[in-house]
Request: fold
Amino acid sequence: MVNFNKKIDRSENDSRKWAGRKSYFGREDLLPMWVADMDIEAPSIVIEALKNKADQKIFGYTMENEGYIGSLVNWVEKKHGYKLFCDRIAHSPTVVTSLNLLIKTLTNEGDNITIQSPTYPQFVKQIKSNNRKVMINKLIEKEDGYEIDFIDFEEKIKNSVVFILCNPHNPTGRVWTREELSKIAEICVKYDVKIISDEIHSDLILNGKHLPIASLGKQVELLVYTCLSSTKTFNLAGIQSSFVVFPTTREKESFVEELSLIGVHEPNSFCMDMVISAYNHGEEWLEELIDHLRGNIEFAIDYIGRNIPQIKVKKPEATYLLWLDLREYRLSDEKLKGRLVEDGGLALTMGGAFMGSGFARMNIACPRYMLEDGLERLKKTFG
Ligand SMILES: Cc1ncc(COP(=O)(O)O)c(C=O)c1O
Reply:
């Protein structure tokens, strides 16, 4: 059994979440529950693989080996029941790199790209920085969670070239159902709109099953560019590795060519061994992690319900992120952030960053003692 409640120390870890407190929040003494990585050690099997790599002592230019892409193919088939083709998969350093290049290659300046709000901030950033236009399909808040407004979705898709799907969804934690994904697919096929499907959170399903949108049939598969990564799943973001699954080999090849033009097509020395060990031997660790995350979520929701009932929070179906509704306080994001920092000593990501003002995102992927501390700080701020 892995001990996910072990005391951790990231003071020398060059972690954005911890070392970035001063520059992002103005203070160093905050409990950081913001950046979406885990305050949890990576699987020991992966650490072993990295040590073995370091023991090779030479870190020259690399070349992709078969096992690297193969480990992803096996993983996706085993976990999500979807068979990928090796020759349609490209390595990419990060999902954000892929979003940027896919937007550049699939659209032209001035084109409309639809996203759903609240949204992962990089979607907006990448669209705008490439001089494309952001079309927002606002998710509808219902008693038991967020839903898609399909009438508005179709209106937006009709006028778009690309739709960026986030499945599972950050920050709401929704796992889109087969019915919802089929409807998305049907509308995108109808208007011949390509789908960039960011499925980075797909291994972190707490309730339900992940369904890759590309698996819903040939017609939609030809429109889908799926971004996947082991780094969110196994807490390896600092080493960087991700994949894009393309509809055709030709498109994969031109993407690799684009990556090579900016010199980031070769996996770094550590990432291949890291990914192979995680995908080939990390399943048991992941199952235990998911149990830990479920436990933390239950604990947090129960605590908030009993101690700070003004904060509304729904149980996420995936991810380790709680989307806290702080609108009852009727304060601006700036004021909410100020209170969290000054009164509670807590660093959360404010909702405005996700086009969700009045909310805050709390990362609960940490040992229980840290979660308890974070919840007490939340209570101190708002209780
Ligand atoms: C939906 C989503 N996509 C992409 C990323 C970033 O992925 P990468 O580190 O591979 O760029 C994140 C990180 O939080 C995310 O939540």
